[in-house]
């Protein structure tokens, strides 16, 4: 491989690492909100970030308090799913557009679903990519029919941990282990 080709390849690898670090920041927002993990949520944003989401416009701490209370009042669980993602990097600034699908299981057992896009300016400061400005574009919303949660009647279904909006959720278990007995259904 020529020196020029090696240099081009290393530059492309740098861009890939930056893109992954940016995507990781966006994912921390989603996980932090769904697990009610304040530290993970706030690690997605620079302290002076501005977020415009629905009728909220403000900083990350206020967003966490407002959105967390809103979700706690309305839903027993939420999933902020990240979908298509574009990322234009220019030095220490990136502009991203990330499609999302929000699903919430409401307290009345209905399911709310909404879709839109997070449009972000992400900045690398002190070596860390984090969101500096977010605009949330909500494009549709609806209620989907409810059905029972599959396998809820299995006696040991939560032995490995029950879903939780806290750090008791099984996703925090290190190392992840299985405590359920082997069983192959008939």
TrEMBL record:
UniProt cross-references to Pfam families, sorted A to Z: SnoaL_4 (PF13577)
InterPro entries in UniProt: NTF2-like_dom_sf, SnoaL-like
Region Disordered: start-end pairs: 160-186
Biased composition (Polar residues): 163-180
Membrane spanning stretches: none
Domain SnoaL-like: 18-135
Identification of the protein by name: Nuclear transport factor 2 family protein
Organism name: Rhodococcus globerulus
